[in-house]
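Good morning C.,

I know you're traveling, so I'll keep this short. The sequence:
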Amino acid sequence: MVNKILKLNGRDRDILATSPLFKGMSQQGFSKVIEHVAVSSFEAKDLIFREGDSPEYFYTVLTGFVRAYRLNREGREADIAVYGPGDTFAETGIFNSDAYGFNAQAAEGITLARFETESVRKLVTESPEIAFALMTTLSCNLKNALECVADDRLHTAPQRVANFILKHCPESAQSARFRLPFQKSLLAGKLGLAPEALSRAFSSLKSAGVSVHGRVIEINDVSALRRF
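The tokens, ready to paste straight into the viewer:
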């Protein structure tokens, strides 16, 4: 449920302008698209939309994180993606207006830029630049989805967690320390793991010098983790 509809402020415009959707777009193209945007806020656990709903809007995250997931008939959930600031999602409705293909939920208190699908679809027919920007975003999201599938097939649970941690380590660092950007439960879903499997994976990585303190991850030997 949307709690508030807000006005687009300067900070929001800056986030949008540097997002993958808009960063290669001209000022004219950017201005045309944001004529059809509203800023929406949601509380943690609020549903943004359900699978099967008509795709009236697509979104870019301004603050917080969004969890995308699907449900089976028994109510079992399978996470598909986690979207953070600057990420655009549900843009497939521009080209395929059948229905949303997943559920989207606020993982925490969030603000989103909400675009009217039909209005932007009309812009796509008029502007090759806007069409290309949306297709680029679709391509990036497809690439990320394929990488997630490959990661699930090719790596064990500890290796998936290790790869995630290494992405947050400077390449030349011998040791590193960072705070998870979201809850461990969200990380588990993002990596295709049950929460208990994530805990076991973290325990397995102790031998590679990884220690976990709440949401803070410490890596004593980055090279050892790369060899894991």
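Safe travels,
E.
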